[in-house]
Amino acid sequence: MELMAQEEAQKSADVVVVSTEKPMTDDKEVTVPAPVPEKEVTPPVASEEKAVPEKVAVETEADKAAPVKEEETVVAEKVIAPSPEELEKKALEEFKELVREALNKREFTAPAPPPVKEEKAEEKKLAEETKEEEKEKKEEEKATVPAQEEAVKSGEKPSEPAAAPAETKPEEKEVVPVTTEKASGAEEDGTKTVEAIEESIVSVTPQESAAAPEETTVVAEAEPVEPEEVSIYGVPLLQDERSDVILLKFLRARDFKVKEALTMLKNTVQWSKENKIDELVEAEAGEEASEFEKMVFAHGVDKEGHVVIYSSYGEFQNKELFSDKEKLNKFLNWRIQLQEKCVRALDFSSPDAKSSFVFVSDFRNAPGLGKRALWQFIRRAVKQFEDNYPEFATRELFINVPWWYIPYYKTFGSIITSPRTRSKMVLAGPSKSADTIFKYISPEQVPVKYGGLSKDIPSTNGDTVTEAIVKPAAKYTIELPASEACTLSWELRVLGADVSYGAQFEPTTEGSYVVIVSKNRKIGLTDEPVITDSFKVGEPGKIVITIDNQTSKKKKVLYRFKTQPKSDI
Known about the structure:
Largest sheet: 5 strands, mixed
Shape: elongated
Helix content: 40-55%
Structural class: alpha+beta
Distance between the termini: 155 Å
């Protein structure tokens, strides 16, 4: 009894120990529903305290390692990121491979549709006829099998089918002997004979039917295919560096999307063939060429060396030239001829060469928006040039733009889809046109018609033009020195006119007389815009030019001069 009492007391003591330690574990493991075993509970919290620092140590090492990985990834991105030049080069190489494949497959030359369709139709008919013949043969052969089986079972010799003469169908000559040989042993096993007959029939027909497609494939492979030679703007594709410069223009026009650039190139080549551009370039100009040249002409270069092409939209008011569609089409053909000649005269030898134009469009006296047919023709012409002469405009200047042009510009701008092309467009009203031109083109290169000093032929002697501003209600003097006996010549222009002009020679030697070269005179808007004058200098001195501006607006003066020694006179 005492032992029993001791055991019960011991059990109660154990229960008390568990109950005293269990609240500590319950606070930490609230979500665990199962009771904790004694072995896991009895160890003190020291084990948990040891585990915690290990976790902290691991986290601190991970924290230390994290920024190192971030730095490595950043450095890797900087190294891997290709430059725009590398991307352009990669796109060009990919584009050249596609062009080479297209040349090998002769994809630039569109095949004549009628003959190809006829040949394909004939091939289809032949194939259908052969298939029908094969089906008929199989049906006839299948029809002979039941008759032979009945003959084998009855023990009689199978008779040859009357509907299949040996002369017309050679395939059945091979079938009949096989069936007769097998029929001799039919009494022993008739089913084997029938199977043998079926095998012999099946083995003959597919071999003969498979011969037809093999002949067609051999004929197709035997045709020789040579890469075609294609030129664009007079430059053969993939022959030298000039081709790379042209291909880059198509890539830029399509934002370096290679497949779209290839489609654009194919369309341009096809357009050139349809319009016979090579013949058009060599053709002589028509009677209207002299009138057309007043509208569109190339004259001089800009400050960077690009050829400048001027277009005067006011000439579209000439009813004699543009009275009907036929005359408009004549002008368009002439304009394409001029464009092609100018393009072929460009230097495509390297990417740094000046292989584009500056276009100056003059809207003075241009037809109003009411002439919709005329403006639709202009829009179609602009779209045609954009599609077939991509990236040939380095700058597009619109000068003397009237107030009504703003809504037209919105319509006109919708044609130009490339943001690159839109960024090159500059608009200027009548009062700002000259300043806008001189921003990109030197005055000595600008025609007199558009505010410059260049006449029919641009100056090539290197005489630079000086620009000056005359303030309102003020005078401005220009001094041209002459250190020895010579002939001094000068050209001068005041934009906006409405000023007074005078010139005199003032010698350096004391006691010499001042010589009046040109008396003061008023220069109006109707007078000759460019003043050309000269003076023979007999002694050292200077020419003094006086510009008197009595208006309330400032004026811009352009002038240049040169001296010719007396020995050369």
